[in-house]
Amino acid sequence: MNLIIADTIFDDFPDLVLGVVILHNIDNSQDKAEITSQLRQAEAELPGKFGSTPVIEHPYIATWREAYRKFGAKPKDYPSSVENLTRRVLNGATIGHINNLVSLYNTISLRHILPVGGEDLNKIVSDVLLTKAGDNEPAIFLLGEKEARAPRAGEILYKDDNGAICRRWNWKEADRTKLTQETKNAFLVIEALPPVSRDTVETAIRELADLVKQFCGGTVSTAFLDKDNREIKLL
Fold first, then answer.
1. CA distances from 77 to 12, 65, 89 (A)
2. β-pairing verdict for 2-5 and 128-132
3. What is the pLDDT of residues 2-37, one digit of tens each?
4. HSE-up of residue 218 (Cα within 13 Å, Cβ side)
């Protein structure tokens, strides 16, 4: 099982970098107060990273709004995962604890103002492809939604042979492959577009890998994808 970025993605986003943490035989079942504490610290530090800058004008947020417009999604209606997360925190919300992996990747997302997500490898069939949706994508259930809907042709998504895994790039994940307390094998992805530097992605992915190894154990490895390296092995 591989993670592959389709060539067409680099036509529009030549400087895209993905940092990936690949996890095998982890224990995600034991909720730990230390993890929630790290998330609360990241929330407390977030306002200082924005100052008086409006959320949509922060360069790390604005780059995703422009990317969404490029593939036909209105960022006002479909905010990127990092815009949604940071906006909630800056508006005074506390991010709920779902499970260890989710809290850890939310912590890194807030620390570095980058989109971070993850999927359960045992629920995925075939390779995972980051690509543009075709005209006849199957309808899927997104997290928290009761009606299955098909992706819009041309939108960027992650998919396997059973359909979309995450719609509108990093907007919302499918229920089918979500991380749970029973997850044993998974991959986590940090996504970056300019002006985010490769060094920033490498720092964030290293921190995420270290946290997962500390709190979930298992075998943890990292990899990077870009225009010169478009495919990595997940399982």
1. 22, 11, 18
2. parallel
3. 999 999 999 999 999 999 999 999 999 998 899 999
4. 23
